[in-house]
Structure formats: C-alpha cells, structure tokens
Give the backbone structure.
Amino acid sequence: MAKTFRLAATQVAFGWSDKAHKVNPYSEQFDPSAVGAHIEKNVRLQLGLFEQAGRMGADLVVGAEDMQRLGHFGAYLDDVSIFRKLVEPIPGATSRRIARVARKYRMYIVACYPEKVGRKCYNTGVLFDRVGRIRGKYRKVQLPADETWVYAAGDKFPVFRTELGNVAIAICYDMMFPEIIRCLALQGADVICHPTMGYGWTENIGEASVKSRAADNGVTIVVACSKRSQVVNCWGEILSDAGRRKNVVVCADVDTKAAMAQEPNHYGTVTTGLADVRERWTKERRTDLFRLLAASRAPLMKRYSKKMPPRTKDEIREVYEKVKEEHRRIARGLAPRYTWD
C-alpha cells in the first residue's frame, strides 16, 4: 500500500516594505540600528509558520528564501558592515532555533538564509531532520547579477536520503535553469524544495516553470514564496496553492516514492515494457548528443557580446549607483515597487 507524507510550504509576508523607512537602506530615514529588530521580526514570523505546519502534522515544511530578509543589506554597498555583522555561520544561533521546532514536531524543515563561511557568504538552504540535526546544506548555484556582489556561488547538487524519499533543494533563480533541476533529478531526488523570493518572470511563467520542471523530471516540488506557495506532484499537478494569501501554510499528502506510471495498455508501456515514465526517460536519454548543454561557448553566444558578471569593482560600483538611484525613487514614491519583493 502506498505511503504518503504531508509536505508543507509557508507563504510569508515579510516585514520589508518601502514605507518602512527606518529599515530601508535607500530611504533618507534609514536607521542602521533598526536592522537587527527588523531581522528578528522576520525570523519569528517564519518560525511561527514552521510551528503552524507542525501543528498541521507536516512531515516536511519548506520556508521562503532569505527568511531573515538580510540579503537586502548585503547588496547595500554603501555600508557592507551591516550585513557582515549580522550574517551567521550554519550551524549558529538561527539554526538552533529552527532545530528546536523540527525536534518539537518531529518533522523535517528546509530553511533558507545567508551563511557565513570564513570570508565568504552563501545563499544557503538547510535541511533539518526530525530530531533537529542538520542533515545537509545546499548553496545556491545560479546567482542573479546583484547577488554576485554579496554571495559566492555554490558548486554542488547534493541530494539527501530520508524516509520521505531523496530530498534536494533549489533556490529561487535556480528554477529558471532546467539543467539544475535535471541534475538533482538524475542524482535521485524525489522531492525538490524550492525556497524563493520570486515566482518566474510573470506569474503565468512561474506556474508553468514549476509544473514543467516537476513533470519533466518526475519529481515533487514544494515552493515557498511570498505568493503562490504550492505543492506540485510528479505529473505537474498543483495539489495545494496558497494563492495570494498572507502568512499561511499549505500542505498536501503525497506518495513521494510513487512511480510516474502509465497504464499497462499505453503504447509506451507496451513498446518498451516499462510503465514508469521516469525510468523510461532516464534510460532513453541521448547523452552523446547533449554535450552542447555543458558548452561554455554555445553557438547562440555569438549573438551576445556584452560582458556579464563577475565584474571589476569599478564596474560594480557604476552599476550599483544606478540601482541605488532607482531604489531611492521607489522609496520616495516616484517609481513602482519591484513586483517580486
């Protein structure tokens, strides 16, 4: 008989807004001394939703990207000491608080926040097990341009064995690169946890991306965001969706180890002898023709000559000044807020 596990995602309305001038580094009323309390408020909010998931009987709950909302200050290059003073090692003070919740409810938790490692920082997702131990960490591989000012990029695709199935993590921008989800799937991931701050270029694309990544790879994906947090099964079906509600938890009971199986009389089953679509795809892959996916100079690159990060310090400063001016216009109400914030 199939065994299901309750998978949950939090949807958090964090306390960052352009009206919160004391904690907006681009506001004329910015007060660096208020940042610590702002981060603590966000951590408590996320922990409270983890607790709610525990009361709902979740076996695993996923939190949003950067649960401290500390990354905003890492990209504030006028005073990087604000970020440097507050970013933590993992394990550390915040991980101990998360571990207590995991232990209390005997559930797995995936939490995401900045990690300090020596002189480097990473955008890190952490898997806590049912007794509060850190089972593993994933460091975001695909960094958008402004995050390269703050974080070093990860270079591994770890998958963690649990009784729920094999669990992996992909953070925000990672989802825009199908190769990343494929790498996790090829390493045996059954459940991919997706802490994120955005949801695709548009909401329609966000939904299409998550559904197609799940179906293309035969994996369950749990998305935790500020909108459209959801649980999507291996057929790309949305089992639970938070919509645009604030500070809620959504969950679904999923057989995470279920085969992506077609009917016995389906032509694919009959012709190959394999009902499991994921198994069939894995064995049928024409890997000898896929070298182009790993090529650093694909033919398409000939169209594009503009240099991308990493940039020199002078180039970053030049871009930053433009970014800073746009943020200031937003803070003054002269331009719309970014839709993903």
